[in-house]
Design goal:
single chain, about 140 residues, 7 helices, about 60% helix, globular
Length: about 140
């Protein structure tokens, strides 16, 4: 079967709709985070774990971390929550892989070994505990 001119490109564009929607949503969210300071009251909700217990959860400081990343302060981002920049890099790599595979017409599958999600979850929980211990205040947001 002969393909008409422009047909392969149209198929690729159609396959990239979902990644484009994800990219636009992420850009809108990051634009909001970059324009609304987390250091002023009322811009973001309070962490329920911190509000109820006074303890920092693994996600505490995420808004300040993302604000720092968006405004170009990488050191400040790591100071607010060192997990988030690492997660952002991993998400960016996964996103690029997804786009390339969609462009080629292939499916993105992630089938990690069983130990990987368990290890990542345990690491996040350990980080949540460590950032609340005396002497490790540098891990607090």
């Amino acid at each position: 079967m002969l393909e008409r001119p422009g047909q392969p490109t149209a198929g690729r564009v159609a396959r990239l709709r979902a990644p484009a929607l994800v990219a636009a949503s992420a850009a809108a969210g990051l634009a909001y985070i970059g324009s609304v300071s987390p250091y002023s009251a009322g811009g973001y909700p309070l962490c329920p774990v911190y509000t109820l217990t006074g303890l920092y959860c693994p996600g505490c400081g995420t808004a300040r971390c993302l604000h720092s990343l968006v405004t170009g302060d990488v050191g400040g981002a790591f100071a607010r929550n060192p997990l988030i920049p690492i997660v952002m890099v991993a998400l960016a790599v996964a996103f690029v892989r997804w786009v390339v595979l969609r462009w080629r017409g292939e499916r993105f599958t992630w089938n990690p070994p069983t130990w990987l999600p368990i290890t990542l979850g345990a690491g996040v929980l350990l980080f949540g505990v460590l950032r609340n211990l005396p002497g490790l205040e540098f891990l607090a947001p």
